[in-house]
Amino acid sequence: MPPIGLLTGGLDFSNKFLILKDAPGGAVFATPADAVKAGAITWNYGNFITLTINFLIVAFCIFLVVKAVNRMKRPSSNKAPVSKDCPFCSMTIPIKATRCPHCTSEMAGTARV
User: Fold this and answer.
1) Same domain for 63 and 28?
2) Range of the domain at 93
3) CATH code of the domain in which 110 resides
4) Which of 2, 4, 51, 83 is the most exposed place for a label (fewest CB within 10 A)?
């Protein structure tokens, strides 16, 4: 959270809480830990905000890493093609095929003698 704290002027969400049921004696507490020690029931919404921001930062970083890895795995375009389209039925067939397995038409220039 240091970069977020720097951007928000040192705002720390982790100590934000709401007292749902006050402790005996009605004291004022500075941290959720102090309130729990005294027996008060608290709702620690600041902890939730902190964890949500941390999750979003980590998720964004993982997204960038996966995106970079996928970019490196992209197939190169200088490889010879391994398939072609049949001119009669437009289905994809192997480049060495002499007859289309879908429509059984012979490929031009590849007829057997």
Assistant:
1) yes
2) 76-113
3) 4.10.1060
4) 2
For the record, the structure tokens of 12 come out as 């720390």
Pairing of β 41-43 and β 83-85? unpaired
86 shares a domain with 39: no
Place of tokens 């905000």: 49
Query: What is the Cα–Cα distance from 35 to 61, expressed in whole angstroms?
Result: 35
Looking at the 3D structure of the chain, how many domains does it have? 2
Single-letter amino acid, residue 47: N
Tens of pLDDT, residue by residue over 35-90, are 888 888 888 888 888 888 889 989 999 999 999 999 998 776 777 778 888 888 88
Burial 82-91 (b: 16+ CB within 10 A, else e): eeeebeeeee
Distance of CA 59 to the CA centre of its chain: 5
Hey, which residues does 19 pair with through a beta bridge? 42
Overall pTM surpassing 0.70 (yes/no): no
Do both 19 and 48 map to the same domain? yes
Note whether 66 and 28 are same-domain residues. yes
